[in-house]
Amino acid sequence: MFAAEIRIASEDAESIISALSPEAGRELPRTTADVRTEDGVGVINLTASDASAMRAALNSYLECIRITEEIGRITR
Q1: Of 35, 46, 32, which is closest to residue 13 (Cα–Cα)?
Q2: Within the chain, which residues score under 70 in pLDDT?
Q3: What is the pLDDT of residue 62?
Q4: Is 29 helix (H, G, I), strand (E, B) or coil?
């Protein structure tokens, strides 16, 4: 079993977590995700059954974070 935690400490953390919450409910093969905020910091916990599944989940979530931050910058 593989586990990873992504912590997002930015002014966009709550928006990012809000945008990613539906993604966490989506089925990813061999992967589970928990998305929440803790004291204004976004937290994403990922678990995967193997390294390939973890890599895919990390790539997916990090790309979603990047896109959401970019949208935030554009709309300010």
Answers
A1: 35
A2: none
A3: 96
A4: coil
Contact (CB, 8 A) for 12 and 20: no
Quote the DSSP letter at residue 28: B
Tokens of 35: 């998305």
Could you give the domains of the chain? 2-75 (3.30.310.50)
Q: How many CA atoms lie within 13 A of 49 on its CB side?
A: 4
Sheet holding 41-48, edge to edge: 2-8, 41-48, 31-38
pTM: 0.89
Overall size of the chain counted in residues? 76
